[in-house]
UniProtKB/TrEMBL annotation:
<dbReference type="Pfam" id="PF13565">
    <property type="entry name" value="HTH_32"/>
</dbReference>
<dbReference type="InterPro" id="IPR047655">
    <property type="entry name" value="Transpos_IS630-like"/>
</dbReference>
<dbReference type="InterPro" id="IPR012337">
    <property type="entry name" value="RNaseH-like_sf"/>
</dbReference>
<dbReference type="InterPro" id="IPR038717">
    <property type="entry name" value="Tc1-like_DDE_dom"/>
</dbReference>
<dbReference type="Pfam" id="PF13358">
    <property type="entry name" value="DDE_3"/>
</dbReference>
<dbReference type="InterPro" id="IPR036397">
    <property type="entry name" value="RNaseH_sf"/>
</dbReference>
<dbReference type="InterPro" id="IPR052702">
    <property type="entry name" value="MscS-like_channel"/>
</dbReference>
<dbReference type="InterPro" id="IPR009057">
    <property type="entry name" value="Homeodomain-like_sf"/>
</dbReference>
<feature type="domain" description="Tc1-like transposase DDE">
    <location>
        <begin position="177"/>
        <end position="322"/>
    </location>
</feature>
<protein>
    <submittedName>
        <fullName>IS630 family transposase</fullName>
    </submittedName>
</protein>
């Protein structure tokens, strides 16, 4: 049976239709089929566009072009969406779906569990677990997952936030911005049996038990400009070790540059002896991140990298061996390091915090 709409179906678009179709064609969130249909209509605009030429330019069949060309000529943009297809009628009405969603959001299981599971919701509501999983996915509900957060209680949160973010986005001239912190309790763990190598169909294996051979504290200073890291392992993390690390930084940084040091509110960072040492060196400027806001310190990102790639899955027979591994990793890291690109402004962070506060209003915070 020939198509009711052939290449003679002319497509004339208004400015509003053209703008909406262009947005659909470029969208990465819409289904790919819908974006393709929008591109077909845009390519068919005008009276001289043959379906064969459009099909060739888009790499599709001519009949597909004729179908959506004709559908658009008849129904406009609404015609590009899939029509309802015959099938088995719904067994779960809207009211039962609403009850399922409300139960997931506002109740807890009666048997004392902290959250609902798909099977528990199915048993409670009488809806099959497959349908429960489908509805939870449709409403983007994930009761099995939890996201941690911590609101800062620092009374100078806004001032400190703007100070640190300002150093990232607009660093001062003739100065070096360093993110400094320590990673304490780096454990030298020796696995009780050799690791199993990775192979086809299975991952690398390590024993769950281990022998502890002591700990070390990793002090690190991240250069915000180029991403290089100055690191030093010390046995403890008191003010004495922190002051010793500051002296190492002072020797490494050229004397004609000021030093802007971003650190957290750890007690050893504000010890009277540390303050006295800083007071004698006017080129040093300390910038403390707000309480419970270590995510503002970029060196924490380096700590995550070295933990994941060098420490967590390693096996070390002594603290000395762990220290050598850390030093080796830092040297190789500095050879090909790149700075972390900070893009968030202080205002955008405060707006995100405001949205979080709006969500948790009435929850006791």
């Amino acid at each position: 049976m020939p198509n009711a709409y052939t290449r003679t179906s002319n497509i004339e678009l208004t400015d509003a239709e053209r703008a909406e179709l262009t947005s659909m064609a470029r969208s990465r969130s819409l289904p790919a089929a819908l974006a393709l249909r929008a591109r077909i209509v845009l390519a068919c605009e005008g009276s001289n566009q043959a379906s064969t030429d459009v099909a060739k330019s888009l790499g599709i069949d001519r009949n597909t072009v004729n179908k959506w060309r004709g559908r658009y000529a008849r129904d406009r943009i609404s015609g590009l969406y899939d029509e309802l297809r015959p099938g088995r009628p719904r067994t779960v009405d809207d009211e039962r779906v609403a009850q399922l969603i409300n139960k997931t959001l506002h109740t807890k299981p009666a048997h004392g569990a902290t959250h609902w599971s798909t099977r528990a919701l199915a048993a409670e509501t009488g809806i099959s677990k497959t349908s429960v999983a489908r509805y939870l996915k449709a409403f983007q509900l994930k009761p099995h997952r939890v996201q941690s957060f911590k609101l800062s209680t620092d009374p100078l949160f806004v001032e400190k936030l703007r100070d640190v973010v300002g150093l990232y986005l607009n660093p001062p001239e003739n100065a070096l911005v360093l993110c400094v912190d320590e990673k304490s309790q780096c454990q030298a763990l020796e696995r009780t049996q050799p690791m199993l190598p990775m192979g086809f169909g299975y991952v690398e294996g390590v024993t769950h038990d281990y022998v502890r051979h002591g700990t070390t504290t990793l002090f690190a200073a991240l250069n915000v400009l180029n991403g290089q890291v100055l690191a030093s392992c010390k046995p403890r993390h008191r003010h004495q070790e922190f002051l010793s690390f500051l002296r190492e930084i002072d020797k490494a940084v050229p004397q004609d540059l000021d030093v802007h040091c971003i650190a957290d509110n750890y007690a050893s960072h504000k010890h009277p002896k540390v303050r006295a040492w800083l007071a004698q060196r006017p080129r040093w400027h300390m910038h403390f991140v707000p309480t419970y806001s270590s995510w503002l310190n970029q060196v924490e990102r380096f700590f995550a990298i070295i933990t994941d790639k060098a420490i967590r899955r390693g096996s070390f027979k002594s603290v000395k061996e762990l220290t050598k591994k850390i030093d080796s990793f830092v040297r190789q890291y500095n050879e090909n390091c790149k700075p972390f690109t900070w893009t968030a402004t202080a205002d955008s962070i405060l707006e995100k915090l405001a949205r979080l506060c709006a969500r948790i209003t009435g929850t006791g915070h």
